[in-house]
Amino acid sequence: MFISGRILILGAHPDDAELGMGATISKLTREMLSCDDIRVLTFAWKSYTGESLIEPHKRAMKTLGIKNYEMLNFEPTMGFFNRQDILDILYKEHKNDYSTVFTHNSYTSNQDHQVIFEETRRAFRDTAILGYSCPSSDYGFSSTPSYIRVSKQDALRKIRAAKEYIIYKKKPYMLPEAIMGTLQANGLEIFGKGLAERFEPIRVII
Ligand SMILES: [Zn+2]
């Protein structure tokens, strides 16, 4: 898959983009795009229990080579995100002429993720959209996923970014072996070897 132009990466919560596509972000910043062409936008800056995730997210973005990122102050309140405010923000982002938008996938069971997925689809009708996978909140996944091959270096950067979220260090999905195992399972599924991240093709424009 060839990705060019400006890229927008959306996440309801501060760790979503890192977990869903941290290795791909590493690959994009390392090999494919100028870091100025990638923007990460997160809608909440704190956890469900109220801890600030600003510093961990900052460090994770630095680890992955991202300079253009912003955290908004929506409450992570299980689906009570103000949808119109989110749509208005996404309409403003739409003016930046992105070639591809990465967002949550349609199979997610997390209500905040569902809101971001749906409003992304509404705002970016004319833009390619790929939905990243967060196995701990997905309820199944697309039967026809797309894959991005990543290197071991990208995988290790993803693990380092996840480790910045010290308050989540005991969460099973944050463990290095879980992250590496998921990348390996994706690699096996598509290439029979190696590492990959998988995406739901929500909008493909050729
Ligand atoms: Zn999330």
Structure description:
The protein has 206 residues and is an alpha/beta fold. The chain has a single domain, classed as Rossmann fold (3-Layer(aba) Sandwich), CATH 3.40.50.10320. 39% of the residues lie in helices and 18% in strands. The chain contains six helices and seven strands. Strands 3-2-1-4-5-7-6 form a seven-stranded mixed sheet, sandwiched between helices. The chain starts with 6 loop residues before the first strand and ends with a strand. The chain binds zinc ion. Zinc ion (ZN) binds next to loops.
What is the CATH topology classification name? Rossmann fold
Beta-strand percentage? 15-25%
Report the bound ligands by name, code or SMILES: zinc ion
Assign the CATH class.
Answer: Alpha Beta
What does the average pLDDT come to? Answer: 93
- Helix percentage: 25-40%
Taking pLDDT < 50 over at least 5 consecutive residues as the criterion, the unreliable ranges are none
Biggest sheet, in brief? 7 strands, mixed
Per CATH, the superfamily is LmbE-like
> Would you tell me the structural class of the helices and strands?
alpha/beta
Corresponding CATH architecture: 3-Layer(aba) Sandwich
| Total DSSP helices | 6
Task: Tell me the strand order in the biggest sheet.
Answer: 3-2-1-4-5-7-6
* Run of helices and strands: EHEHEHEHEEHHE
General shape: globular
> Termini distance?
11 Å
**Number of discrete domains:** 1
Over all CA atoms, what is the radius of gyration? 15 Å
